[in-house]
Design a protein that fits this description.
single chain; about 425 residues; alpha/beta; TIM Barrel; Endonuclease, Chain A; 2 domains; eight-stranded mixed beta barrel; seven-stranded mixed β-sheet; about 35% helix; about 20% strand; Cyclic-di-GMP_PDE-like
């Protein structure tokens, strides 16, 4: 693979980025039953002999000068170019990482043609982490949708490094669940069984596949299979290296979920009430009647054993009372992700809680939503203010729909996530 500029002559990380002086190594991804490759993960490196050869050092330096997103694009495109140059085709799957900070950054003009070429010739799975969805939910879901629109897949990386990520996983609905290597290397920790069971449950519900990282020994291989993994990577199968010449695959490329498995989110998205009310009975009740239901769902988000996602919309900041703020702050100490939306809300309306400020004319202003998604539990209360006058606060009337239908709850949660901007 050729790059512009002279990598060894680069004196700063800025020069490396200007020269697009990044190379790519590839680690095989293997079918654990046949021990034959079904794809490769692309791993980027800076110029050899420089302080930025290691990817962590390279990205840290790029972040310091505000060019980490550009570097991320370079790494991905260099991986596409190297794969195409080696003759990789869509019989093998190329796994490529994306950093959260690049989600809202458009592809640089000089790299765009290579991106288009990759979309037509390569079978790609884009790897994301829970940091991406927690940091910028709207951009992450848009990126996942864009990948699926061109026939590419999505992998959820490092599952198990933070058990709270299990609740975020179904919001992305990844095709591949990548178990963190720490699960294999320290399998006796109490949380390992919890992570593995949640991953297997997700795979069973959706048809996703499980891939175990860090397989270095035969014992690791045996353990990975007991964890539900059918694919794996690690030094047992080969270190990161230049891409070999094309070879015959084992005939089982990495399967992707049906493209229609995740309902596309409309732009602008439908509100949670519109989504749930279209599928479930709509009733009417006062605020006083709905408050206990709302508080019950909030309590389900305080399950420390199964940290969930809690999303809520309370119309206006004045309805997010100090006592509610305290409840949500307490929940945020253990939950995977907690967010509240409303007119006049701050970005941090309570410790650990993400806030999203709605405009006066936002359609969500009239809605009261409480959505909880955990590895096993899911429920949504969606309500819309009827706007009737002459009533006390507790007498205010709403039309509402309540559901425990997991797929419907997830659709409503994804829609609400589109209103949440970067942290």
């Amino acid at each position: 693979m050729t790059v512009t500029g002279s990598p060894r002559a680069a004196r700063t990380v800025g020069e490396i980025i200007d020269a697009r002086a990044v190379t790519t190594l590839f680690q095989p991804l293997v079918d654990l039953e046949r021990r034959e490759p079904v794809g490769y993960e692309a791993l980027s490196r800076g110029p050899a002999g420089t302080p930025w050869q290691a990817p962590i050092a390279l990205f840290e330096a790029a972040r310091e000068i505000g060019r980490a997103a550009e570097l991320d694009w370079i790494c991905r495109v260099r991986a596409y170019q190297a794969a195409l140059a080696a003759g990789l085709d869509d019989s093998m799957t190329l796994f490529v990482n994306i950093e959260p900070m690049a989600l809202r950054t458009p592809c640089p003009d000089d790299l765009f043609p290579a991106t288009v070429a990759a979309q037509g010739k390569l079978r790609v799975v884009t790897e994301i982490t829970e940091r991406a969805i927690a940091g910028d939910p709207s951009a992450l879901l848009s990126t996942a949708a864009a990948c699926r629109a061109v026939g590419w897949g999505v992998a959820f990386d490092d599952v198990g490094s933070d058990p709270a990520s299990l609740a975020l996983m179904p919001l992305v609905r990844p095709d591949v669940v990548k178990l963190d290597m720490g699960l294999l290397h320290d399998p006796h920790r109490a949380e390992v069984a919890h992570v593995v069971n949640a991953a297997i449950a997700y795979a069973e519900r959706t048809g996703a596949v499980i891939l175990a990282e860090g397989i270095e020994t035969e014992e690791h291989l045996e353990l990975a299979r007991t964890m539900g993994a059918t694919l794996g990577q690690g030094l047992l199968f080969g270190p990161p290296a230049p891409l070999p010449a094309p070879s015959v695959t084992c005939g089982t490329s990495v399967p992707l979920l049906p493209a229609d498995g995740v309902p596309p989110v409309a732009v602008p998205p439908r509100s949670p009430f519109e989504i749930v009310a279209a599928a479930k009975p709509v009733l009417r009740a006062t605020k006083a009647r709905l408050a206990p239901i709302s508080q019950f769902l909030e309590s389900k988000a305080r399950d420390e054993g199964e940290p969930p996602v809690l999303l809520a919309c309370f119309q206006e900041a004045r309805f997010f009372t100090p006592s509610m703020a305290q409840r949500f702050a307490d929940t945020a100490t253990t939950a995977a992700f907690v967010a509240v939306l409303g007119v006049g809300l701050d970005e941090r309306p309570a410790p650990g809680v993400r806030g999203a400020r709605l405009s006066e004319d936002d359609p969500l202003r009239g809605e009261w939503n409480v959505i909880v998604v955990g590895p096993y539990f899911a429920a949504a209360l969606t309500a819309r203010d009827l706007g009737l006058s002459g009533m006390t606060e507790e007498e205010r009337r709403f039309e509402y729909a309540l559901t425990h239908d997991r797929e419907l709850v997830l659709e409503a949660a994804r829609a609400l996530m589109y209103w949440i901007s970067p942290a």
